[in-house]
Structures are given as C-alpha cells and as structure tokens.
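Title: Comparing notes on inverse folding

I've been comparing how different people in this forum approach sequence design from structure. To keep things fair, I'm posting one structure and asking everyone to reply with a full sequence. Here's the target:
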C-alpha cells in the first residue's frame, strides 16, 4: 500500500493511521469549541422537519454555525463510545481469558488421553517421527504386528536353516493387505528345490521416504537379525517426498511437519508439544477428507452406471497428484530437486554403512509409478496442465537411483521394464485412479523379485553357513 502522508523524519502514514490521527484531532478540536461560551449568540431554529432545520449565526461569531454544531455532536458520540468500551473492556478480557484457558485445558486433556481419543492407525514415535500403531485390525482377520508392520510376528532370531529377508518400503508394502507382494514372495520361496528356507518380513510404513525407512530399520528392522535387506524404492514420489528441511511427525491424530532443527520436540506424557492445536489439526484433516470424498462421490454420481469402477480418488485429484510426482522428471526443474536427491543418497549411504557393519547384504529395487509405464496417463496429465511431453524425461528417477547404487556398490533392480511390457500387453496393474498396485500388480512384482532372489539366496546361504533343512 502506498503511503498517504510522508513525514520529514522518514515516517510514512498509511490510510488507516491517517484517519486515526484526523479523528483524534477532530475530537480535541470539538471539545474546545463545545463550551457554552463558544455558542453565545448562536440561535438554532428548528423547522417543521429535519430537512427544514435552519442555523442562524449570531453577530460576530466567526465560522458558520452548522460546522460548530457538528463538532460537539461527534465529540459526544465518540466519548460515549469510548465510555461504553471502557465499561465493557473488563468483560471482554474475562471472556477472552476464559476462552484461552479453556483451549489450553482442552489441549492438556487431548495430550493426557491421546491414545484413547485418537485411535487412528498412525502414532507418534520419538525416533522416527511416526509409525503405524501396533496390534490393530487393518483388515478381515489381519492385525499389525508388535512393531506396527503389515505382517505377522516373527521371532527376533531366524530359525536354523533359514535365510531371513527384510523388505523396507512405504505404502506399497500395504497394498492388497494379506496379498501384498511381500507375502506372495514369501509363499513362492517356501518350497525351494535346494531345501533352503526363506522368510520375507515386511517392514514398511506408509508415507515414509528413504531416511524415515532407515530410522525404522535401525529401531525395529535390525531386531529381526536379517541376512538381506531390500529397499523397495517407489520411483513415483520417494525423491519428491525426501525434503531435508522438514520432519514429519504425528500430533494427536494428524500429521504435522516441523523443521529438523526443532527435532526432537518437547514432550508431555510421551506426546509432542507444539505451538499447534491438536483440535485444529484434526479439523484440518477432516476438512481435506470431506473435500476428497465429495469430489469422488460427485464423479461417481455423474458417471454412467456402466463405467462406475471402484476409485480411490477423483480423476482430477489423481491427475493433480501424478502431475506433482512427475516433476522429478521435468527437465526444467532438475535443480529444484537437487537437495532431495542428495538427501536420498545420504540415506542410502547410511543404510549401506549400517548393514555393512553387521555383514548384512543390501539391494535396491525400483518400483514404478503408473505414469512411468502408461503413455495414456501421461497424455491425460499433460492435457490437464497444458504441457509438452518434450520437457519430461520419464526415466530420470530410475537413472538417478541407478547411478547412486552404482557409486555405492549396491545391486539395483528396476521393475519398470517388466511393468511396461505387461501394460503394453493389456494388463491392468494399478488400482483405478490410484498409483498402488492391484492384485495383478502385486503378483507381477512378487514374480519378478522371485527371479531376482533365486540368484541371490544361495550365495547368502553359503556366506552365512546356512544349511538346507
């Protein structure tokens, strides 16, 4: 806003400040001229109606009478308003104080009874930031295990004659529940012809990126004493979500991002205390859910019955989601993702160093997003945002990850070619308007990993002197 008045000392007054000063001056001026002696000789004659009211100036009395009559009226009104405000101010302060104390008390109650009030799937973790709640029902006959993973409980030491494999990952380790690719992989490895038993343990948490997965590995995964760790890296958003300037935690039942310098936060009764209201965070999340559900239900209602398939998100929301993920492949934004890719490389280096110190093998598997295998989805996103395909390099995420693994001496296996071939053959591998695999996608991933591990397991068994059962 441009200044209205500029003073000599370099002080600028905006419109509101100027009006405030003029009003104060008017009050002072009015009070000076509202005394009785100032109006001696002024005759105020009323007509039959307000429009006929006439003001007669007395002899030798300076400015016109209407001007002097207006000033004391305004002065009285202002004085009355100020008096009423002063009388009401204690009550207003009491009401405001009572409101603040009520909100503080409510926040303390929400902290004290956090686990009873917020019974969602995610809980606060003082080392990772958040994780899934242990031992909760996540499907018919399925519960999370002791650490909140989508798997059964395992003894912490592998049984004799067994090769134990951990699969680090994100929400892809939860898709299709009990028929997740990690479970299918374990089933396919049960009856190996060489007699070597293989256990595949799912240690993925939804919404995590490589660094958070590394923290989960250190805190929980290594307790299983594995022989091999597989990092299932989602090429769609694991680079995009790896933001070194934010730490994601759960406050009450909601996610909240804080700066890493603020980590760890202050805690009361094991719960984080931030300058954010748990109630407001909950209302924010519920508002987002309601909006997404409204968009989804509206689209389902407006579509013909013959085309009503199960959808996770509305089409427009899914296109916006995929467009945000596609930016890692945008040639014009490569520099923007430099801190992201550096953060991922640091996380992979930490995982490698930690596992090497325990003589645990490590490989990385790239999981493709739907836009990376589907030209149809790419065209839809580009049309929605009026962009040109020439500004994108669709395999960029995979190439970055491949280069990282090569520099670290870690084996890298990309599932994108296999998924692209299956898609070209007409296979539907993803849930509708959802970047997670459907049943066919999980089966294909398990089959590809089975072929990869068939060449790795014998060497692991030999190095660790694991004899067939």
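Reply #1:
Here's my take.
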């Amino acid at each position: 806003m441009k200044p209205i008045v500029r003073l000599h000392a370099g002080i600028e007054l905006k419109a509101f400040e100027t009006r405030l000063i003029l009003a104060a001056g008017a009050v002072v001026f009015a009070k000076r001229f509202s005394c009785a002696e100032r109006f001696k000789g002024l005759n105020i004659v009323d007509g039959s109606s307000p429009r006929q009211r006439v003001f007669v100036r007395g002899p030798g009395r300076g400015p016109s009478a209407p001007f002097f009559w207006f000033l004391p009226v305004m002065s009285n009104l202002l004085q009355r308003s100020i008096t009423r405000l002063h009388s009401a101010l204690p009550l207003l302060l009491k009401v405001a104080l009572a409101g603040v104390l009520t909100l503080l008390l409510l926040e303390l109650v929400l902290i004290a009874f956090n686990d009873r009030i917020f019974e969602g799937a995610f809980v606060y973790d003082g080392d990772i930031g958040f994780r899934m709640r242990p031992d909760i029902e996540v499907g018919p006959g399925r519960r999370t295990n002791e650490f909140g993973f989508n798997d059964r409980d395992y003894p912490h030491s592998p049984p004799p004659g067994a090769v134990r494999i951990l699969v680090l990952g994100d929400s892809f380790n939860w898709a299709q529940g009990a028929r997740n690719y990690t479970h299918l992989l374990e089933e396919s490895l049960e009856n190996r012809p060489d007699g070597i038993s293989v256990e595949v343990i799912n240690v993925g948490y939804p919404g995590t990126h490589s660094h958070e997965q590394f923290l989960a590995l250190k805190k929980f995964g290594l307790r299983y004493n594995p022989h091999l760790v597989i990092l299932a890296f989602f090429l769609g958003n694991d680079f995009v979500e790896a933001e070194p300037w934010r730490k994601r935690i759960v406050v009450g039942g909601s996610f909240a991002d804080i700066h890493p310098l603020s980590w760890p936060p202050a805690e009361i009764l094991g719960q984080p205390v931030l300058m954010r209201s748990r109630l407001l965070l909950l209302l924010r999340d519920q508002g987002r859910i309601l909006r997404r559900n409204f968009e989804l239900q509206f689209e389902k209602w407006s579509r013909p019955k013959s085309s009503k398939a199960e959808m996770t998100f509305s089409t427009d929301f899914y296109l916006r989601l995929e467009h945000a993920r596609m930016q890692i492949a945008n040639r014009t934004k490569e520099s923007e993702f430099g801190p992201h890719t550096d953060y991922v490389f640091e996380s992979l280096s930490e995982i490698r160093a930690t596992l090497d110190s325990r003589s645990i093998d490590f490989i990385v598997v790239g999981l493709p997003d739907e836009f990376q295998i589907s030209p149809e989805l790419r065209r839809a996103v580009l049309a929605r945002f009026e962009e040109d395909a020439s500004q994108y390099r669709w395999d960029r995420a995979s190439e970055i990850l491949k280069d990282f693994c090569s520099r670290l001496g870690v084996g890298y296996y990309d599932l994108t070619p296999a998924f692209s071939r299956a898609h070209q053959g007409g296979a539907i591998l993803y849930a509708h308007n959802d970047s997670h695999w459907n049943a066919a996608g999980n089966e294909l991933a398990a089959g590809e990993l089975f072929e990869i591990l068939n060449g790795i397991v014998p060497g692991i068994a030999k190095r660790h002197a694991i004899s067939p059962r």
